């Protein structure tokens, strides 16, 4: 009787045997995993400042970019916003540093006026452009066309009682160059933080290998913007190697400071961008040093730059591109930083071509200054823009696709085309009666590198303070607005106090 009863029990629990075995196995596996994590946490005395580092790196990896037309319209929209700001007017007083003999009343009055103008500048330029890059990103074509139509309407309204074309002189040309340099810096400063939020479209982030995107233009635009108005372009006595090393030592210091700081706080770094240790500041320093070593006149810079770019492209086409774009890395410094080191040739060639263009358009001695009017310059800027756009399309189709990572010939041509397009649009400001460069533009123009440094610091603080991948769209937008206003007012305050950081 007992045997029958035991057999009945065994028969009933038999179907659950496999389930119990699987459950026990899962519990054992989880126990071992938790124990391993516990041991690791006990062995690690320092807690990571950036627990989402790998997720953030994956968030900006393996991207293919956007279309060239969309990028062109995005930058056109910013140029138009700057022109609309000029159409509005509302400029208070001439800005400048506070003098020691100024009385308190005058200082307070000027400071209030300056702050009020910065508020207007930020509201007219920063706020709408942040919206264009985020919540309005799916309507890029519509917003760009709308901004162009609005500008044309405002220009037509302001024509009443005013001469349609203002007198052209070198001061207006300098103002347009300043606006162009500032516009490219503003795009870079906005994007370096916005890219960490999900509200920022992935197609605007840097491409992994080939393709075009808004953020791909950052470092190239910075190099070109500085070359157009560099000492070499202006024909000023060339620097010796010793002076170049002294001048670029702050850049080298900033490069090592960024390397040490990102490593110490476990900050996310996309290795495919420059390499394991390389960064933007090392590239700037290298270009400056190479330009000083190979000391040539502005007239010869274009030829030398073209030879460097064509020669570099030949090596890329013969297999160097496969080496640079592969994920394999050796243990030596060259292999670990292959993208950053080899792309120097592309950026150096771009810089030399930019020196020649800047000399030809703005500073060449054999052109009568009276003839170098805004109209003369604008015509040539548009001609060069169309030439480089045609070159870009040809190279992209028949030689090699655009690649920021290798800084190939097609990428250099694209940067030249986009930057000259922005400059050409901003040179239409002479059709705006009474238009004047804004206080925010003046402030950023006097401190381009300083503003970029501050933008990097603010971006790092935001990333270490909040998990940007988990921030909802409304909160992300609020953070970006706050970031834009803080950056604008900090740079404006530095300009008002006469603080300037420049060593390029």
From TrEMBL:
Record keywords: Membrane, Transmembrane, Transmembrane helix
Keyword NAD: no
GO cellular-component term (any): membrane
Subcellular location field: Membrane
Stored InterPro entries: PIGW/GWT1
A Pfam entry, by short name: GWT1
Transmembrane domains' residue ranges: 114-133, 139-157, 178-197, 209-229, 241-261, 276-294, 301-320, 340-361, 381-399, 411-432, 444-462, 474-499
Domain of life per record: Eukaryota
Main location: membrane
GO molecular function, a single term: O-acyltransferase activity
GO BP of this protein: GPI anchor metabolic process
Topology relative to the membrane: Multi-pass membrane protein
Keyword Transmembrane helix assigned: yes
Name of this chain's protein: GPI-anchored wall transfer protein
Organism of provenance: Abeliophyllum distichum
Upper classification of the organism: Eukaryota, Viridiplantae, Streptophyta, Embryophyta, Tracheophyta
């Amino acid at each position: 009787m007992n045997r029958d009863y035991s057999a009945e029990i065994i028969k009933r629990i038999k179907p659950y045997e496999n389930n119990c075995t699987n459950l026990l196995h899962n519990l054992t596996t989880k126990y071992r995993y938790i124990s391993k994590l516990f041991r690791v946490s006990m062995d690690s005395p320092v807690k990571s400042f950036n627990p989402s580092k790998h997720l953030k790196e994956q968030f900006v990896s393996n991207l293919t970019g956007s279309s060239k037309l969309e990028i062109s319209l995005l930058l056109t929209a910013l140029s138009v916003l700057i022109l609309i700001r000029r159409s509005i007017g509302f400029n208070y007083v001439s800005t400048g540093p506070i003098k020691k003999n100024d009385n308190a009343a005058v200082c307070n009055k000027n400071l209030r006026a300056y702050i009020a103008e910065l508020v207007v500048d930020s509201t007219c330029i920063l706020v709408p452009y942040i919206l264009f890059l985020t919540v309005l990103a799916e309507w890029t074509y519509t917003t760009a066309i709308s901004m162009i139509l609005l500008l044309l309407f405002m220009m037509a309204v302001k024509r009443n009682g005013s001469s349609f074309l203002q007198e052209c002189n070198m001061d207006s040309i300098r103002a347009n160059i300043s606006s162009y340099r500032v516009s490219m810096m503003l795009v870079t400063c906005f994007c370096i933080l916005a890219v960490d939020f999900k509200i920022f479209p992935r197609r605007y982030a840097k491409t992994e290998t080939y393709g075009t995107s808004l953020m791909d233009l950052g470092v190239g635009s910075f190099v070109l913007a500085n070359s157009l108005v560099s000492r070499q372009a202006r024909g000023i006595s060339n620097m010796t190697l010793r002076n170049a090393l002294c001048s670029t030592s702050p850049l080298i210091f900033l490069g090592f400071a960024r390397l040490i700081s990102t490593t110490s706080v476990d900050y996310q770094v996309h290795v495919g961008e420059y390499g394991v240790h390389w960064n933007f500041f090392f590239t700037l320093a290298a270009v400056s040093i190479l330009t000083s070593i190979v000391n040539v006149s502005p007239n010869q810079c274009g030829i030398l730059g073209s030879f460097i770019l064509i020669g570099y492209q030949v090596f890329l086409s013969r297999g160097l591109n496969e080496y640079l774009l592969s994920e394999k890395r050796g243990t030596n410094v060259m292999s670990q930083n292959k993208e950053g080191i080899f792309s120097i040739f592309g950026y150096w060639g771009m810089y030399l071509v930019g020196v020649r263009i800047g000399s030809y358009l703005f500073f060449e001695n054999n052109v009568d200054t009276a003839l170098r009017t805004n109209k003369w310059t604008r015509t040539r800027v548009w001609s060069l823009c169309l030439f480089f756009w045609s070159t870009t399309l040809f190279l992209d189709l028949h030689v090699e696709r655009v690649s920021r990572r290798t800084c190939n010939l097609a990428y250099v041509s694209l940067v030249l085309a986009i930057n000259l397009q922005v400059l050409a649009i901003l040179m239409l400001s002479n059709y705006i009666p009474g238009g004047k460069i804004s206080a925010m533009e003046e402030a950023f123009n006097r401190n381009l590198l300083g503003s970029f440094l501050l933008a990097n610091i603010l971006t790092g603080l935001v990333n270490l303070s909040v998990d940007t991948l988990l921030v909802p769209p409304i909160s992300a937008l609020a953070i970006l607005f706050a970031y834009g206003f803080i950056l604008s007012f900090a740079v404006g305050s530095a300009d008002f106090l006469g603080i300037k950081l420049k060593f390029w």
